Structures are given as C-alpha cells and as structure tokens.
Amino acid sequence: MHLAYPAVLSALLFCTGLYGVLARRNAILVLMSVELMLNAVNLNLVAFDVWLSRTARETLHSGQALTLFTIAIAAAEIGIGLAIVLAVYRNRGTSDIDKLRDTAEGPDAEGPDGDHPAAEKAEATA
Amino acid sequence: MTLAQAPHGFLSPAGVEIAFLLVGLLTLGAALVTVTTRQLVHAALWLVVALGGLAVEYLLLTAEFIAWVQVLIYVGSVVVLLLFGLMLTKAPIGRSPDADSGNRWAALTVAVASAVALVWVVVDAFRTTWIDLDGPAAGTTEVTGASLFRHWVLPFEALSVLLLAALVGAIVLSRKAKADAEGEGDGKAGADGKAKADALPAAPGKEGAR
Amino acid sequence: MTTTTLAVLVPLLPFLGAAAGLLLGRTAPGFVRPLAVLPPLASLVLAVLVAARQGGGTAVDAHTELTPTGSVPIELALHIDGFAALVAVLVACVAACVQIYSTGYLRDDPRYPSYAALVSLFTSAMLLVVYSGDLIVLLVGWEVMGICSYFLVGHYWETPEARAASLKAFLVTKLGDVPFLIGLFALAGDAGSFRLTRILGAVTSGGIDHPTPVALLLLAGVAGKSAQFPLHTWLPDAMAGPTPVSALIHAATMVAAGVYFIARLLPLFEASRAAMVVLAVMAAVTMAGSALAALAQDDIKRVLAYSTVGQLGYMTGALAVGDRGAAVFHLLTHGAFKALLFLAAGVVIHAAGTNSLAAMSRMRGLRDRVPDAYWTMTVALLALAAIPPFSGFFSKESVLGAAEHVTQGHTGHAPGAAGWIVLVAGLLTALLTAAYAARLWLLAFRGRGTEAPDHGRQPLTMTVVLWVLAIPSLALGGLAYRLLPDWFDGRDLTPTLLTSILGTGLALVGGLLTYGAWQRGTALAARPPLGAVAAHPEADAGLVEAEAIATHRPAYGDIAYAPDPADPGRLLLGPLHRPAAAGFHLDAVYEALFVRPVRAGASLVRFLDREVVDTYVRGAAALPRLLGAAVRRAQTGNVQTYVSALLAGTVVLAVAVLLVATGA
To answer: Which residues does the annotated region (Disordered) include (chain A) (predicted)?
Structure first.
C-alpha cells in the first residue's frame, strides 16, 4: 500500500479537526475536534510504524507504543477537559467559547479610547 | 529493494488499497460532518463513525491491537463521555443556529491553507513509498505487548503516574465545583451528574494503558 | 569667654531662636514670645560686650578653614573693627526693639510664630554680614536677608499689594545680586582670597588689576540692597509689609547692609575714581529724587520709605567722598530715628485707622490719642530734618562736612567732582527733607475736622519701645561725634561751621515754607472729609494696617496718591506733584523696558511651547495611538481568533521554510 494514502488521510483529518477547533462555538464540540486531530496523528504514527518495521527492521514498534500512550493521554485529557468545561458552565451558565472573553478589555475600559484625546487636551492647557 | 523497484502505480490499486480509500473517504466525510453539523448530538454520533472508520484503517494497516483499543476507548468511552458532557451542559437537541462562531471563515482559511501545505509536502515526500503489508502482522497483540513491556516499561509506568494525576485532578475539580454549587440551589443536579461523569475518565485511561 | 566666642554667639543666638521658633511655633505656642524676644536681647548684650572689649582698638580677626576647596579658599572668618562692633550693636538694638514691639503689634496674628522666627533669622543674617570677615560668608547672610525680606514683606499675602511687593523686592534685589556675585568672584580671583583683610591688603599693594569693573559690579548689588537709584523702586512698595518689618528693613538690616559693605571695602572703591564718581551721581540722584517723591506721598509709610532712600543717599554720598566714618555715623543715627519713625507710624496708623495723610489731616486730636507716638515722632522728625541738637544734625553735617572737605581738592582718595555733586545734592535734600518732615508732622498731628476715633490706649510693649528709641534719636549724635573717630578711621566728625549754617538754614527754610503752604491750604481742607478708615479699628494693629493698605487704592485710585487739595506738598511741588507721587514714573519705565518685553517673550515662548513643540509631541503620540487602536481591535478576548492567527502564522512560516529549504 502506498504510504501516501494514510499520510494524506491523516493530514486531511488533522485539518478537519483544526477547522473544528477554530470554528466551533460549543466547548464540547471543540473537544471532539481535538480528538479528531489526535486520531489523525495516531493514524500517522501507526502507518509509519508499519512502514518502518518492514523497511528499516525497526523492532521497537515505537509508533504503536506511542499511539497507545497518545490514546491514554487523550482519555485523560478529555476527562480533565470535560471537568473544566462543566466547571465553566456551572460558573458562567454557558459553554460557548466566544463568550468567555475575560482577557479582553471590557466595555468600560474602552472609555479611554473615546475621551482620551479630550483629557489630554485638558492636560495640555492646564 | 522495494523502493528501487517501485512497480506500484496509483492507477493500479490493490484490493486493500481500495478498501483503505473507501473507508478513508467515509472517515473523512464523517469527520467533516462532525465539525460542520448544526446538531450537537449528531456531531457526537458522526464522531463515532469517524473513529470507527479509523479503527478499520488500523486493521487494514495490520495494527489489530491498536484498532481494538481504539474501539474500546474512543468509541466505547470517550464518545459516551462527550455525550454526557453535552447533556450536562444542557446542549440543545436539534438544530442550533449558532453552532459555529463568527470565526468560521478565518478558521476555514487556516484549515484549507494548512491542508494544502501538508498534503503538498506529504505527497511530495512519500509519493513513491510503499508499505509492504505481507508477512507477519506488525501490530499483533503479541508483538505490541512484547515491545511495550520490554522496551517501553519506564514510559508506561510514568504514564500510569500521569493518569493518577489526571484522576486526582478531575476529582479535585469536581469536588470544588460541588462545594461551590451547594451554595446555589439549582446547581445540585449538575453537580451530581458531574461526579458520575468524572468517575469515568479514570477507568478508560487505565484500560487504555493496559 | 574670648571676644571671638562672644562674637560668634551674636549671630548664632537669633539663628537658634529662629530655628526653635519655626520648630516649636505650632506645638508650643507659649514659647514663641520668649523665643522671639530673648535671643535678640541676648545678642544685644553680647554685641555691647564685644564692642566694649574691642573698644575701637585693633580689629579682632579670627578665621578657620572648613575644608580645602582647591582654588580660592573659603573660610569662616570674623573681622571686627570699630565699624562692625558699633553696627552690630545698632542691629541688635533695633531688632530687639522690633521684636518687643511686634509682640504687641501682631498679638492676635495667627502667623505670628513664623513671623517672629523670620525676623530673628533676618537679624541673624544681618549680624553675620556685619561680623563676617569672608566675602562668601557675607554673601550667605546677604542672600538670607533677601529671602527673609521676601517672606516678611509678603506677610499679608492675602492682599495683592503685599504679594506684588514681596515679589518685586525679591526680584529687584536679586537683579542687583547677579552682578554682585560676579563682582565678588572677580575680586576674589584678583586678590586670591575671599578674606576681607587679604583683599584690603591686595588693594593697598595694588594687587587688583581691574578695580573699576569690579567696583561697578559690586555697586549694582549694593544699589539693589540699599535701595539706591535706579534699583530703589522695591523699597516704597515694601511698605505693604507689617510696620515692624519696615522698621527692621529700613533702619538696621537690609538697606544698611549695602552701605556697610561699601564701607568695609572702601579702599577698593577709592582705587577707581570712576566708581567714586558713579557712586556720587547715584547718591545725588537718589537723595534729591527720593526727597521730592517723599513730599508727594500720601501714605505715611511711603513718606518714610522715600526718606529712607534719601538718607541712604546721604550715606552713599559720604562714601563717595571717601569718608566712611561719616557714612557709618549717619547709618547709626539714622537707624535709631528711622526705626523710631516707623514704629511710631505704626502706632499712628493703628490709632487713626488709616495710613493716608490726607485722611489724618481731617482728624482732630490725633496727637491726644497717641501722646507717646506724638512726642517721640516729633523728636525723630526733628532728627530727620537735621535740626540741632538732635542726632541727625551731627551725622548729616559730618557728611556735608566731608563733601565740602573734598571740594577743596586737597584729598587724594576722592575726586573733587564727587565732592561738589554730593554737597549740592545734600544741601538741596536738606531743604526738601525738612519740608516733607514738616508736612508729615503737620498733616498727621495738626489735623482739623472731626474728632479722631478713640480705640483706647496702645499696648505698653509698643509705646515703651518708642521712648527707648527716642533717647538715641535725641542724644546719640551730640554725645558720639567726639568719641566715634576713635572707633572709626580717626577722621574728625565735628560739624564745620559753614555747612552747619547752610544745612540748618535750608532745613528751617524748608520747614517754614511747608508751614506757610499748609496755612494757605487750610481753607481747602474744610471740604467734606475724604478718608478710608479700616473696618476693624478695635482689632490688633497689624490687621488695621493690612486693611488700611488694602483700602487705599479703592478709596483714592492709587496706592501712593490722594486727591487732597489741602496738601502742602501739592502747593510746593506744583506740576511736579503728580510725577513725584508716582515715583517719577520709574515703575512705568521699568514696566515698558523690562516687564513688557519679558512678558511678551514669555507669551511667545508659551505659544511656541504649546502650539509648536506640543504639536510634535501630539503628533508623536497620535501614530502609536492609531496603531494601538488597531491592535486593540484585534484583541477581542476570543481564544479561537488568537489560535487562528497563531496557526496562520505557523503555516506561513512553515511554507516559507519549505520554500527556502527546497530552494524554490
């Protein structure tokens, strides 16, 4: 089998997951998209492991071992991620990512943008 | 060398390649529906299809142990967990018009650009590489177990520590939320469900490690 | 204790009193009065002791070098000769009188603690100037006096007059101090030392290369400090301060410092004939002009201020003819009777409730209200007018005698021209001085009209001081003119017959002329009264004075002028009256020459700064602000947007790296 088939499939799945992470509003859907991306990587790992174990006589099977690790870690990640999402939901009443904008300047902080030149002018005349 | 011979063209696929392509298209399609559908629960179900398709691809790549682990953990528990999450956050059943954020065109641009770049690089690099799937399977349970417990014992044990940490972390998060929620009245049901939901990730994690 | 220790204590005690007064003024109000009065009294005792020990003999010299400065050494030095000893006694005496008087005059003033401390500091600075044997230490005292006068003149800073006057006093004296400082450095550079004795030694041995520029530069500072033409304009305005401060500034401290400084360095000035002539012209213009101006003033304190300027002109005149003995003699007697005049004027202003002579001339019986002030002021005015046997007569005649001596041309130290200038101006001024003294006395105490208001007796602290000062005003001249030559240069101070007859005769003529004019004007004085009487006549004297000064301009339209047709000065001066009242419009000239150009320049600079420089600043700020606004728009708080941007950048970078790596 051509290595390009799983590799291209993996790349496309990864980008699909990427789109989901960037475009989905619901945090749980974002987590699903993250799973898609992880699986794309897993597919890559398995494909290359199979390829290398034949062509390079690689006996460690590092690709498959790492795939297992990735799956385990992904399971842990989804558990913690869901716990966080639920905590946020309980605190904020929403799990929409684009409503969680505490890092931005609030609407009250936008005041200086409006009246800043006036204040500066008053300072200059003082 | 197989590389030097390279008798295999893209236009003369073997049977396993055709199967891989078909399942791959199904997987990709399911993944695309997952990230685009407006019905949140359907997204989780289409994710099952995509993950199951991937399990089939693993089988086709002779990695049977990985395939079964995939089915057990992803299809069996992760998706269930996600569905629980959807329910606990009171995700709407049916079409929700705002499933995608305003960022979708930027996201589409970035995703398409990276897809083009990745596919271009991958095809450019591996268009002649051939995987020889004949002979003994590369991913039987015996082979995987041997390598895992012979060469990868130390990372394996380290991983179990990580899973323990995740378990403790999930418990701490849920307990704190529970203490907070007790002050309120209506957060009680969510807290209860949450405790159940948090008990789950540890189990598939352990299971996956084994 | 040695004489040196005593002499060090003399300026130190008031300084410590001032420091303690400033520190304790708020926390321990009970200590303020003792702290104000006792240090000057102790200084007076010590100064008398120092004078007795020095006794006019050889000068006491002591010096210590604090630290090597690398170039011209700066030392803490004392140089006490007869001049220093006697002037210190005068300063301490007047300061003690002023402090005692102030306890009554400002008894209800909330700012009395700081006021008393500043007066003490002022006294300390003057004593430092008097005793110092090093020009830099002298300069320290000189400048401390400048800042103290700023604060004291502006004591009533609530009134705009006081604020303006304190600023003007400070700026004008500083204007003189800049060339003064340069002159000091030039002098020390030539002589190689700031020590007085070394400089005088260098002068006698001809070690000063350029005596004329140095002397003229120093003269500028002296003119500013001693209120000589053309830098005298601050002194009449300084009347906005409390009366005791005026007494202190005018009699003993600030204005005396300039004269005293020239007296100390007179050999240097004598080395330059040009400087002596300039000094003589300055003295002549000052005394004649100020006497004319004094004749036209309506504010009783401004009359006295201009008379101070004139008497200082006598002193500089004496210096211009090379007789510092006469100058310091006049300084001593003038200090006594001018302090008395000011303090008595304070009492009169308090009793009358106004500082306007025109208003006083319409009050009957003012002298019965303040008999102490009436009698002592009469004595002091006679001394001012140089009527024998009052003290002013002897000192003024010694000045005129010295000038006459120089006119005969057998002196090497002063040019004959200077003698003529001083003599003629001095005689003219004697006439005018008597005229304005008589006018002041007649208008203040011989008023006709309504009965003067009765505010009860004046505080004892204020009247006792007047009598204390009346003694030297009456007798100092007659007793001292035979003794003083031993203390001074040894030159005879006895009045000569010719100048005595001339001076006294002119003074009598002036007085009689004024009396005649006053008699003619009495008919006009019967018109309805014009007067500005303070609103709180029962309050303490300081408040009454502040209100009187503040109401003078609203009542008469000018701070120095009153439209009084019965004023004898108006008859005597004729068309000169209006310009004389305004100080010959010198302030207007300064306004046009200096103030307006400086203001125009300031507004130009302000315009340039605000409109031109700030435009660049604003422009420099605008671009970052625009960029900041753009960047802020990107900062939405949406994590997905951030990750999108991050990944887009990653893709772009990866593609770029790939293209580079493949050589495309």
So the answer is: 98-126
With respect to residue B41, please indicate whether it lies within any of the assigned structural domains.
yes
Closest approach of A109 to chain B, Cα-based (Å):
23
Same domain as B94, residue B26: yes
Query: Domain of B34?
Result: 11-98
- Chain B within 8 Å of A100 (Cβ-Cβ)? no
- The number of folded domains in chain B is 2
Residue whose token pair is 């590369």: B138
Residue A124 confidence (pLDDT) above 60: no
Considering its fold, how many domains does chain C have in total?
Answer: 1
Q: Inform me whether the pLDDT recorded for B185 exceeds 60.
A: no
Does the beta carbon of A52 lie under 8 angstroms from any beta carbon of chain B? Answer: no
Other Cβ atoms less than 10 A from the Cβ of C296: the count is: 28
Residue from A84, A98, A123 whose CB has the most chain C CBs within 10 Å, to mutate: A98
Contact C655 B117 (CB under 8 A): yes
**What are the C-alpha distances in Å from B53 to residues A21, A34, A64, B69?**
21, 17, 18, 13
Per-residue pLDDT tens digits for C339-349? 888 888 888 88
Say yes or no for a CB contact (<8 Å) between B47 and A32.
Answer: yes
d(CA A13, CA A32) in angstroms, rounded, equals 12
Residues of C in contact with B121 (CB under 8 A): 658
- The residue among B5 and C605 whose pLDDT is bigger is C605
Predicted local confidence at residue A39, as pLDDT: 93
Straight-line distance from the first to the last Cα atom of chain A, in angstroms, rounded to the nearest whole number: 80
Q: What would be the CATH architecture of the domain defined by A4-125?
A: Orthogonal Bundle (1.10)
Quick check: is C114 in a domain?
no
User: Residue C163: what pLDDT?
Assistant: 85
Interface contact B177-A3, CB threshold 8 A: no
Q: What is the pLDDT of residues A68-97, one digit of tens each?
A: 999 999 989 998 999 888 888 888 888 888
Considering only CB atoms, which chain B residues are within 8 Å of C647?
110, 114
Residues of C in contact with A23 (CB under 8 A): 640
pLDDT band at residue A107 using 50, 70 and 90 as cut-offs:
low
Domain of residue C609, residue span: 586-661
Q: Are strands C75-80 and C60-65 parallel, antiparallel or unpaired?
A: antiparallel
Q: What is the DSSP string of A59-91?
A: -S-HHHHHHHHHHHHHHHHHHHHHHHHHHHHHH
